Amino acid sequence: MKKNPQQRHQSLFKAGLTPLLLALLWAPSSTATSASKIEAAVASSNRVSSLSKDELISILTLQKRQWANGERIIIILPPITQPSFSQFVIERTGFYPYQLKRRWDRTRFSGRGRAPITANTPQETIELLKKTPNALVFLPADLSDKEVKYVTSND
Amino acid sequence: MSRPMTRQLMHTACLISVCITSLCTLSASASIINDWRINGFLSQGLSTTSDNHYFGDSDDRISFDFFEAGLLIEKDLNDTLSLSTKLAYRAPYSIQRNRTSIDHLLLDYHALNGRSWYVGARLGRVKVNYGLYNTTRNTSYTWPTALMNDTVYVNKLLPLYLSTDGINVYGHKDFDSTSVDLELSTGRLKVPGAVVNDLFYGLVESQDLTLKDTLNVKLDLSIPSWRSRFNATFIGFDADITDLNSPPTTYNWRQYSLSWQQAWQAWQLDVELYQATHANTSQGYNLTVHRLFPSGLDIYALLGEYWENSKDKQGETFEALTGLPGSSQFSANYGLGFIYPITPHWDIAAEARYNEGTNSLLFADNPLQDEGLKEHWTQLFIRATYHF
């Protein structure tokens, strides 16, 4: 039987609602765990020795933009899909990484701040840190490098 | 050349230029710290409605008119000075009409800072920082929902007042458990006549409009440990409008909004109330509840209402005076949607809505405001975005 326009639209509407409901049912509710824990770090020459939870949140939400000495904070992240980084962000800030990413995009595309830079490997992160001593980076906690100083506190 | 063909060509040109830029910057992370940074996005939407038109000819059809592309270019000149600009192309959805525009072009001078505070200024074309989720409501893929809340889409402010050519002063202060941000912008802006004409249902002459004495003040209070944000915004401007049916008048817009955003690990609540005074006093609110997942999936339900005249919420007086339907004076929408990052570069978003009232419909999409519009209607919108 041929559908009238109203029925046709109702079908389209239902076709749109179905994936929404399926997505709700299918969506995973917890993050995967990973063997290698991530910690926040700065260059060993940086005067910062620890970061409180609130300071970390302020930096990652792009509200705090400079270190106390006036240098611009450059945030260098592993890929946000990396499970160990996701776990770190959730535990230390209470945000999911994509929540932060949406905030970064809004800030960046309005000309009100710079979004973090992504480094694909710890080696790449360390190379970037050597070139930019004012960076805040995120590295595996078991990595030992004299150029790197871990700064996260658990308050 | 016909308009659809021109549009097709513009879309293709945008697609090619953004793809080339994307390819050129794919492996650039190691070199961008002190160099130019280039980012961009392409967004294509699909809109269908049971009645009325939204983002093109969508009544019982699928409209692909929603298309948007943007290119962001930034450079840090030193620790305190940076340059940023964004070019945007918007296809003829709603009121933006094939417009390529400079959304912002500014020099940001981070003037002074201490251990827990900083102040600075931005000079040039600065985007209006309205409401809580903004900073960039006028970039579709950064909207808090797949479709922007009707009450914001419709309130005529957003397309009229995207940016201001002038100065923006900002400050930030950390306290023990809170932080406060304050921004103040002032300047002027020229709005194209086509946009003005659409906003006022073709009742004003299609000539460029200059917004004068613009003022945008935004106060933001954050409590990081609670993951709460409170926000108050004021926007005001004056403009001389030539109405076809009455003598030229100065249009004074004053708008106040209050917002609250509360995040939990897996949930987020956004509440926004606002009131605008112009010819009438308009009021509206948005309420959005998000369920968030570690994968980046964001499923939300929303409720929004808007009244063009708070003293005539159902439009009865308006109908008696003008003969036009009273349903054009209010809008209520109930929606369910999701945004999902398929990869770090691809997002898909979808939203289904039930609507009451036609105030959210724009003249550009629905030229016959006085006939044929249905008070109760549904819509489905799907959007895919590539960004880099």
Write up what this structure looks like.
The complex is a heterodimer of chains A (155) and B (388). With 155 residues, chain A is an alpha/beta fold. Helices cover 41% and strands 14% of the residues of chain A. Chain A starts with a helix and ends in a 5-residue tail after the last strand. By secondary structure, chain B is mainly beta. Residues 26-32 of chain B have low confidence and may be disordered. Chain B has a 16-stranded antiparallel barrel. Chain B has 5 helices and 16 strands. Chains A and B meet through helix 1, helix 2, helix 4, strand 3 and helix 5 of A and strand 1, strand 2, strand 3, strand 4 and strand 5 of B.
For the termini of chain B, the CA-CA separation is: 33 Å
Radius of gyration of chain A: 21 Å
- Give the helix proportion of chain B (percent range): 10-25%
If you average the pLDDT of chain B, what whole number results?
82
Written as H for each helix and E for each strand, in order along the chain, the element string of chain A is: HEHEHHEHEE
The level of helicity of chain A is 40-55%
Distance between the termini of chain A: 66 Å
Using DSSP, what is the number of strands of chain B?
16
Strand content of chain A: 5-15%
Number of strands of chain A: 5
Number of distinct helices of chain B: 5
Mean pLDDT of chain A: 81
Question: Biggest sheet of chain B, strands in spatial order?
Answer: 1-2-3-4-5-6-7-8-9-10-11-12-13-14-15-16
Poorly predicted residue ranges of chain B: 26-32
Poorly predicted regions of chain A: 29-34
Shape of chain A: elongated
Notable characteristics:
heterodimer, A: 155 residues, alpha/beta, five-stranded mixed beta sheet, 41% helix, elongated, B: 388 residues, mainly beta, 5 helices, globular
Task: Set out the fold topology.
The complex is a heterodimer of chains A (155) and B (388).
Chain A: H1 5-26, E1 38-43, H2 53-60, E2 74-77, H3 83-93, H4 97-108, E3 117-118, H5 122-131, E4 135-140, E5 148-150
Parallel strand pairs in A: 2-3, 2-4
Antiparallel strand pairs in A: 1-4, 1-5
Chain B: H1 3-25, E1 37-49, E2 67-76, E3 81-90, E4 99-113, E5 117-127, H2 150-153, H3 157-160, E6 163-174, E7 179-191, H4 193-199, E8 209-223, E9 228-241, E10 249-263, E11 267-277, E12 281-292, E13 298-307, H5 316-322, E14 330-343, E15 346-356, E16 376-387
Antiparallel strand pairs in B: 1-2, 1-16, 2-3, 3-4, 4-5, 5-6, 6-7, 7-8, 8-9, 9-10, 10-11, 11-12, 12-13, 13-14, 14-15, 15-16
